[in-house]
């Protein structure tokens, strides 16, 4: 299943946040979206999902305007992992994941054995089956984030939209989630994700889009797009992009560290 964004303008109410956005997402592709806070990434995602109306342009799902898809059919094909989720009721983690089966149920129907098995498998695929009977209100923020990813997988979508999926995770869980993202893409799932970490984009993305002042300033393969100049334009910081001995992974680091600066001013150790 393909997703095409054509000359999209988006925003809230009377305010236009961004315009002229054109992107495409092919089957099995991971597209990374990078941009500073306030660049409009979350608003763009909500518009792509149909949660906010587009101000201009089109979002096409398999060549068909998103607005022409019934909500239930849309939800069977595209799933969303938000940055955070307020925990108000003590549902178990498995019950939260099971909510992802809602688009596949008839009105007022209860989940059946197959739905529960799919929910369990989604949680287990992320190595979090031990959380199944834990109250969602009592697990850590990082664990909640992984449960939300499992909930999205339980929808059995073709397209997964992930808003900073590793933001609240420790390093180990960040690497596990990124590994799962690549594995899911290998099974044909199309994924668009936002991140503030260019190293993560190098690790999992097939292509990268840079969002600055609510417009796309660069789009292409990570090695072509994530340059020192482009990252300086995005984040106003000088960085070095390269690799380290023993690894083929591309990495970013500040050109001048705090320690170097302290030594240079005579305040270092």
The stretches of 5 or more residues where confidence is low (pLDDT under 50) are 258-269
Rounded mean pLDDT score: 88
**What characteristic shape results from the CA principal axes?**
globular
Residues in helix, %:
25-40%
Q: Major β-sheet, in short?
A: 6 strands, mixed
Rg, Cα atoms, Å:
20 Å
Order of helices and strands: EEEHEEHEHHHEHEHEEHHEEH
Structure description:
- By secondary structure, the protein is of the alpha/beta class.
- The protein has helices spanning 41-48, 71-77, 93-98, 113-125, 141-154, 171-186, 198-204, 222-225, 228-235, 258-264; strands spanning 3-12, 15-25, 30-34, 56-61, 64-65, 78-81, 159-163, 190-194, 207-212, 215-220, 239-243, 250-254.
- A 6-stranded mixed beta sheet has the order 6-7-8-3-9-10, sandwiched between helices.
- α4 packs across α5 (141-154).
- Mean pLDDT is 88; it is low at 258-269.
How would you summarize the topology of this molecule?
Blueprint: E1 3-12, E2 15-25, E3 30-34, H1 41-48, E4 56-61, E5 64-65, H2 71-77, E6 78-81, H3 93-98, H4 113-125, H5 141-154, E7 159-163, H6 171-186, E8 190-194, H7 198-204, E9 207-212, E10 215-220, H8 222-225, H9 228-235, E11 239-243, E12 250-254, H10 258-264
Parallel strand pairs: 3-8, 3-9, 6-7, 7-8
Antiparallel strand pairs: 1-2, 1-4, 4-5, 9-10, 11-12
């Amino acid at each position: 299943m393909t997703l095409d964004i054509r000359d999209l303008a988006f925003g809230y109410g009377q305010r236009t946040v961004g315009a002229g956005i054109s992107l495409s997402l092919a089957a099995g592709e991971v597209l990374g979206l990078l941009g500073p806070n306030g660049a409009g990434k979350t608003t763009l995602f909500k518009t792509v999902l149909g949660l906010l109306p587009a101000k201009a342009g089109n979002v096409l799902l398999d060549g068909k305007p998103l607005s022409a898809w019934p909500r239930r059919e849309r939800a069977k094909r595209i799933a969303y992992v938000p940055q955070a989720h307020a925990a108000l009721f003590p549902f178990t983690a498995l019950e939260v994941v099971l909510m992802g089966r809602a688009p596949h149920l008839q009105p007022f129907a209860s989940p059946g054995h197959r739905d529960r098995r799919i929910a369990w498998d989604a949680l287990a695929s992320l190595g979090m089956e031990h959380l199944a009977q834990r109250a969602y209100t009592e697990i850590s923020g990082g664990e909640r984030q992984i449960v939300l990813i499992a909930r999205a997988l339980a929808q059995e979508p073709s397209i997964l939209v992930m808003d900073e999926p590793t933001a609240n995770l420790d390093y180990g869980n960040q690497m596990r989630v990124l590994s799962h993202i690549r594995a899911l893409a290998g099974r044909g799932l199309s994924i668009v994700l936002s991140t503030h970490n260019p190293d993560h984009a190098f690790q999992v993305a097939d292509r990268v889009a840079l969002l600055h002042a609510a417009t796309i300033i660069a789009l292409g393969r990570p090695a072509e797009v994530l340059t020192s100049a482009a990252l300086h334009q995005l984040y106003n910081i000088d960085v070095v992009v390269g690799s380290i001995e023993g690894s083929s992974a591309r990495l970013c680091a500040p050109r001048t560290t705090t320690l170097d600066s302290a030594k240079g001013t005579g305040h270092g150790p």
